[in-house]
Design brief:
The complex is a heterodimer. Chain A is built from 4 helices and 3 strands, in the order αβααββα. Chain A is mainly α. Chain A has a single domain, classed as Orthogonal Bundle (Arc Repressor Mutant, subunit A), CATH 1.10.10.10. In chain A, β2 and β3 form a beta hairpin. Chain A is extended and about 70 Å long. Chain A starts with a helix and ends in a 5-residue tail after the last helix. Chain B is an alpha/beta fold. Among the domains of chain B are: about 80 residues, no CATH class; about 100 residues; about 160 residues, no CATH class. In chain B, about 55% of the residues lie in helices and about 15% in strands. Chain B is built from 19 helices and 15 strands. In chain B, α9 packs across α10 and α13 runs antiparallel to α14. The longest helix of chain B is centred in the middle third of the chain and has 53 residues. About 10% of the residues of chain B have low confidence. Classes of the chains: A mainly alpha, B alpha/beta. Chains A and B meet through α1, α3 and α4 of A and α2, α3, α4 and α12 of B.
Chain lengths: ~140, ~600
């Protein structure tokens, strides 16, 4: 029966090891979901202030600690642009190649207004939810 | 001092150090792979390249230098971020939304961004209409280590073709029963298919996306399986059987390994053998005579023969080589041969096969037409003929015309084997006892056309000489030098009158057809003695034996008759005596 014992021990060990990684994965997933929506909202907000270059957006987002690497931004910008929320124009640069300057479209502005409303609702909901929470 | 490379990013030229370039290149490939799936990948890549170019030019201006080095590249990469740093869920939001399946546990997720809520609804509907799309593209052929009897090959195949593994097992068993091919197939697949070790492998083996839901699903399934295993006794038994299967598998794999090593050694030997044989053949072609020779090569010109040997060596050798490498990989876990080498081998194998086919077909053309030239020559009539052979390779210096011999002149500095042939047959036919004996020469050759064949036949040089009652056959005939083997043959028919006695030298035994000279012994040691009868040549010794036998039989018969007569007499006597006795008795009475 020694091998059965060994097997049980192995399985239990496996279970715990897998457990930790699994729940950290679940947490990560939720974080990603949260951050994703907020990231797009933030980008739209930053661009709505006026024409802006991609690396300046990165800088602002880095300052807000919402974005770590620049590479994540480009696919997002491309998608927002393809969805008609953004447009861009080429501008000459003193250093290097011409740059893409992004600006918000009228559709983008409409979406942004809706998002503002949703954000306020969410903020309210979250505040209510966590107000009387005991576990930190 | 460093070597620099000039690169062009978005039509801006940079000088970059070699190692830095390699680094950048692998980074770009990584990124391309990452975004390759999504529709916007081209634009995204352009943006990233543009940004990299800009960062490079900033660095050049700031640092007042001309060359991008390793440090610049690694800093740019950290700023841009590795692929692993990219938030996959964000980046591939669109791509994954299409492949998500509804989760039975209610672990439903809204994957779309808030900006395109209306969009996502239709997307998810689409995904229900074509759920197989992602299954088909992502599946990998791997061995399932959880559901295995020997190596998990069958269950792996089952996952791949979405069939229950037991059916595949049944098919394998059937294959094994019919000729045992299943074993080889199984071993090959075992060696080729990788193990599904981690969870991601297992998911891709089942054709599921390696994302969180599926991870969780597979994890839950595994836990469920374990719980069931510990509660149900039947599953207990199953586990036990599986571990027995494991042990059995180990034994079988050990036996397989020993077998593989043996085959490996045999294959290695075969390879060496093939090499030696081909070298010997090439030496033969170059004029170094040796025993290793494949006769059909005679039909080719030397250069063609060279290529034929090469092609044959490759055609036979490459499969052996492939087997050798495969076994080597199997036994010693060496790395697989690189792709270019194996492709080259395959290509040269195909070329060699084509070449061999070409040679076979083209030379076959050369043998299409047959021509036979028939010549008759009278023999002086004799009571007894002595047929013997003149070995052309032995030149007697005492011959008067030693220097004039035709073939001596003909084959000046030529290898004998090229011009001398020994396809000679002799047959004997009976003619009327009063007719004159004669020889019929049939010169026979083949060629592409009839005229070619008959010309070739006419070039055959063969004569039989008669000296008194000696008829001397040359051991070989000559063909013109430079002519190739085209099935040239000489068939001689000797028409002899009935009653002629024939002494046949034993040297000729292998040329003589229709009769068996081996079984016939004459008074003289080197000759067999024959006599021509109406139905062909008969061995004198045999005839005598037959006659003696017949005589003996007759004698035996006479003896028998005599004995029978004696017996009869004796029985008569007995009867008489008995009669006398009874008569005597009656008389006495």
């Amino acid at each position: 029966m020694w091998f059965l014992e060994k097997y049980i021990v192995l399985c239990i060990a496996k279970y715990y090891i897998k457990d930790i990684s699994l729940y950290s994965m679940i947490a990560e997933n939720t974080q990603t979901q949260m951050r994703k929506g907020i990231l797009e909202y933030c980008i739209l907000s930053i661009i709505s202030r006026g024409e802006i270059y991609a690396s300046d957006i990165t800088r602002e987002l880095k300052k807000a600690e919402l974005l770590v690497v620049e590479g994540t931004l480009y696919p997002l910008l491309t998608r927002l642009k393809n969805n008609g929320l953004l447009s861009y124009s080429w501008q000459e640069s003193t250093s290097g190649p011409p740059r893409k300057y992004y600006q918000i479209t009228s559709e983008g502005k409409d979406v942004l207004i809706k998002l503002d409303v949703t954000w306020k609702e969410l903020l309210f909901a979250v505040q209510i939810s966590i107000e009387n929470r005991e576990i930190i | 001092m460093n070597k620099t490379i000039i690169i062009n990013i978005n039509s801006i030229v940079f000088h970059i150090e070699e190692d830095a370039y390699e680094n950048l290149r692998s980074y770009m490939i990584e990124i391309k792979k990452h975004f390759g799936k999504s529709e916007d990948s081209k634009e995204i890549l352009e943006d990233i390249e543009n940004r990299i170019a800009e960062m490079f030019s900033e660095r050049i201006q700031l640092g007042r230098k001309e060359v991008i080095n390793m440090e610049d590249v690694s800093q740019v990469i950290t700023q841009m971020g590795r692929v692993s740093d990219f938030d996959t869920e964000i980046v591939l939001g669109d791509a994954t939304a299409e492949t998500y399946e509804s989760d039975p546990d209610g672990f439903q997720e809204n994957n779309s961004s808030s900006a395109e809520e209306s969009d996502s609804q239709t997307r998810q509907e689409n995904s229900h209409q074509e759920p197989d799309f992602s299954l088909l593209t992502a599946k990998k052929l791997m061995r399932d280590m959880d559901d295995k009897i020997l190596g998990g090959v069958c269950s792996g195949l089952g996952h791949y073709f979405t069939i229950d593994a037991k059916w595949i097992r049944v098919i394998f068993v059937l294959f094994f029963l019919f000729g045992g091919s299943g074993v080889i197939l199984y071993l090959v697949l075992w060696a080729v298919m990788p193990k599904a070790l981690n969870r991601a492998d297992k998911l891709s083996m089942r054709g599921e996306k390696a994302n969180l839901q599926n991870f969780k699903k597979s994890f839950d399934e595994e836990m469920k399986g374990i719980r069931e295993n510990f509660s149900g006794t039947s599953e207990h038994f199953n586990r036990g059987a599986r571990s027995i299967g494991d042990g059995l598998g180990r034994i079988i794999s050990l036996i397989g390994k020993i077998f593989a090593v043996l085959v490996l050694i045999a294959t290695g030997g075969a390879l060496i053998g093939i090499f030696i044989v081909s070298v010997m053949h090439i030496l033969n072609l170059m004029g170094f005579q040796n025993d290793v020779y494949f006769p059909p090569l005679e039909v080719l010109q030397p250069t063609a023969a060279f290529f034929a040997i090469l092609a044959a060596t490759l055609a036979i050798g490459i499969p052996f080589l492939a087997l050798f490498f495969f076994l080597l990989r199997l036994v010693f876990k060496t790395r697989p041969m690189n792709n270019y080498a194996s492709m080259t081998l395959l290509a040269s194998w195909i070329v060699s096969i084509v070449l061999i086919l070409y040679f076979v077909i083209s030379t076959n053309q050369e043998f299409q037409e047959v021509s036979t030239i028939s010549v008759e020559k009278q023999l002086a009539k004799k009571e007894v003929f002595v047929f013997s052979e003149n070995n052309m390779r032995v030149i007697k210096a005492s011959d008067e015309d030693f220097n004039k011999k035709k073939f001596n002149l003909n084959i000046n500095e030529k290898a004998l084997s090229e011009v001398l042939r020994s396809d000679i047959s002799i047959q004997f036919e009976a003619i009327d006892s009063l007719a004159n004996p004669y020889l019929q020469y049939n010169y026979h050759a083949k060629g592409k056309s009839y005229s070619e064949a008959s010309e070739r036949a006419s070039k055959i040089n063969y004569q039989v000489s008669q000296q008194a009652d000696h008829v001397i056959f040359n051991s070989h005939f000559t063909i013109n030098s430079g002519q190739l083997y085209r099935d040239q043959r000489v068939a001689i028919k000797a028409y002899l009158p009935v009653g002629t006695k024939v002494l046949l030298a034993h040297e000729l035994d292998h040329k003589v057809r229709d009769i068996w000279a081996d079984n016939c012994q004459g008074e003289q040691k080197n000759y067999s003695e024959w006599i021509m009868q109406k139905d062909g040549l008969k061995c004198i010794q045999k005839l005598i034996e037959e006659r003696e036998k017949a005589l003996q039989e007759r004698l035996d018969e006479q003896e028998k008759l005599k004995e029978e007569a004696k017996d009869e007499e004796a029985s008569k006597k007995k009867d008489q005596e008995e009669k006398n006795k009874t008569e005597g008795a009656t008389n006495a009475a």
